[in-house]
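request received
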Amino acid sequence: MLYSLPLDATPPTVQIFNTLQNYYLILGGAAAVIVIGYMVFMIAKNRERPGRQVPAYHHEEGDWGNWKGVVMLLCVTGSVLAFVEYETFASANLVAIPDPPNALQVGVVGRQFSWSFTYDNGYTDFQNLTVPLNTIVILNITSADVTHGFYIPSLDVAKDAQPGIYSQLWFNATQPGTFTIVCRQLCGVGHALMISKLVVETTSAYNTWYSKLPAAPPAKGGA
Amino acid sequence: MNAWLSRWLYTTNHKDVGLLYIAGSMYFGFVGAILILLVRVELAIPVCATGVSGMCWPSATQTFLSAASFNQAVTLHGLIMILWFLSPLAIGLANYFLPLQIGAADLALPRVNAFGYWLWLFGGITATIGFFLPGGNTAGGWTAYSPLSSSTFSPGAGPTLAFAGLIMLATSITVGSINILLTVAVERGPGITWRKIPMFSWFIIFTIVAMLFSFPSFLAALLLLISDRVLGTMYYSASAGGSILWDDLFWFFGHPEVYVVLLPAFGLIAEIFPVFSGRPLAEKNIILICTGAIVIPLSYMVWSHHMFLTGVTLSEDEAFSVATILISLPFDVITLAFIKTLTRSSIRLTAPMIFCIGSVFLFIIGGITGVFLSSFVLDVVYNNTYFVVGHFHYVMVGAAIFGLIAGLYYYIPIMTGKMYHEKMANWHFITSFIGFNILYFPMFFLYDMPRRIYTYQSLPSWNTLNLISTVGAFIFAASQIFLLANIVWTLRAGKISPPNPWGATTPEWVPVITGASHGAAASMGSMPGAEAGEHHRHESSRPIWLATGIAVSFLGLALLVYSWGIAVFILGLAIDGFAVIGWMYEDLHETFHMPEGVTERWPFNAIPKMRLGMWIFLSTDVIVFGAILGAYLYIRSFTPDWPIPGSVHEIPLGLANTIVLLTSGLTAFLALESIKEGKQRNMIMWLCATFILGATFLGIKGAEWYNLYFVKGFTWNSSIAGSTYYFTVGLHAAHVTVGLVLMAYLIRKAMMGGYTKENHAGIENFALYWAFVDIVWIFVFPLFYLL
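response:
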């Protein structure tokens, strides 16, 4: 769905998320279908109806019932779960912060009810987060008042913004355009309208924009 | 007073209290449903602002609910549905049927049970009053994340009242849990060994254990929050770690609470599946072991999966993700054991069974989506979106409510003596099952839509799904009319039920104990409890007054923003004093009569029970103090400029006071030793000495506080050091004060000759409590004075 914004070149974070989600969807869906299907089949087969002979139940099971069956079940579900958990660990680079030499660092501050973005030169933008194409961007996120949730739906990245705590997220935008940034942690009456724009520009357009920024005012409310 | 009214207000009979819980929870369920229907109407279609770059953008105006009303509605919907509808419905059934299942004549402490009910009910009312106050109710989500819940960002009496209501709820749950555990441990009828306890009771025991260790953490978190809001202490507001502190304390309670809600429904399934399948439950012992593993320790090891995005380290994410995966394994086993019970069976598809099957069906979907959420990578996207909302409603509404409704139909013959309308119940299931899936399944596809937003931008992928969901909400809500109509029909026109209509074999249907009323026929023709006469209802007016007093004093506390609030507060304390003295009067003069077989009466049998109760109570209190001392250490680690030891507190005075308190511990012990030798006069003397030393401790503390507050200007709202000092030491002083009240009662009773060499349980329990108060101080003193 991704806010219905088509993406030509899939950003790496979205790739990681989609690949991982597919494992969960396929295995989880299969498990649901098998278990629910088996249950419904058993109910249909064993339902009380005229002419059906009630199966005799034998107390052949001891106190511990069919414990071998339980162990086997634990092995089967355990290995499926271990597999998806392994895939999650393998996808941890969605949340682990990379350390490339030329990454763009931007400070993000959430406040009731807007986001602000502070660049290396001290310039603070209260509307848009502008970043260059195909560059790793690292955001240092905090909050000036209550807990907010920083979320870029089209890039599948998110992190909570909490007062006094700095947390990081990274992304690499692979398509120019304008995308939505929203708040995902209830933060008061303006929560639903706490929306900013992510503007992705080509490297040259970004450099032009960056060089024309007004002289840095003393860091005010910046991260 | 009108006999009908006095019966329901003053009853302490477990059946009556159970019915009160069920009726009360249905009322709150109705309130919670209305709130969320308003929310679903608001979300049915996007409301667009025009002219914003050609896109349909969320609009702040023209919405059905204002943002403030919307936030209050979703917040109270969550609180009410979880804490005042789901859990209490299960507690109501447990109140009614657990004693029957284990052959007890009543709960161990009937008046405490009634007190718990009224405290719960008044807590719910207190929490909802805020809607009608200027400024409205709490609006930060049911999780009440700090610092949004502070008085800076959520000012007014409404939120304070909501948190006060939660404190009353947590207290009610704690005393209720102790009561039920005691009943199971001490009051089981002859022949009911641990191995013979039926499955529903077993699951209630597990539920109670989960409550017992999770709610104290919630209580501690709420006490800190109320103190922040009313007194201006700075636990959550002034410190960098404040928001995480709340997250940890809250979710340490919040995750086990999920199982508190779910397990009673599982207990009912384990009860109903075998009865309607015509065969025993498969893998009974393995189910019990798995449930035990879920409650302790797994449910306490996973809370941080609610905090994957709060900036914790990657290794923490990984550890809690693995723990969360582990907790799904026992659930796999339980679910498949339930399904195995359906094999080699003859299944009667009557209402209780259909609802149980629906519950398992929906739990499978809810459980598998829970595995999705255990992945800290997928959670980056799913966190706080409608995917999460869909998941936990499949578990809490799907699995839990369907199971509890199955329990209602299953037990209606016992509760009313009549049989419900089967056709109507079938239609109830069909409409609610379809409505439920229309309501919640679309939410899994809304995994990029943040929850708790009152207006949203128009997106083709969102609009249709939200509309479908709203339609489903109305179908699901309307289907509950079948349930209400069925209950009314049963009471008015239902056929008399045979004693054991389902052919069940558990003790509540098949009498194994003489004297207790069992099976449907026992309550035939009238509401249960009535046939027993006044003696068996063992009425007492004290519980409801005590709960009223607490509610009124909290009301006063929240209204301190107005000048007359203090008067309300004092009125509440006066009512409490009246109720406590009355309660003690009933004990001193034995005017409260218990039904046969219940052993609250002294002199005999009560000794191990009361001591066990005190131990369980102290274990919950350990968690409260543990959480509060933990909060102190945590918040201190974020605060760089802490006063040097000795600069604020006078160490010699504190040390002297410590010696006073420890000496009082010695005298309390000597009082116990005296009565063990039968020396009543010596015991009274030592008790008086303990009282004087305790009062001296409080006096010195008072002088210290006066000096700190007025002379040194070291106040609770001036610094975090002040906040933590006054709160922790104050909580300890409150425990000392309660000890003084208990001692006054003990001394009075001792002077009437109430304690002898053989019977001195009261003194023993008091000595235990007093030793605990001493031990807490041994931790508090160095942490606040010396470090």
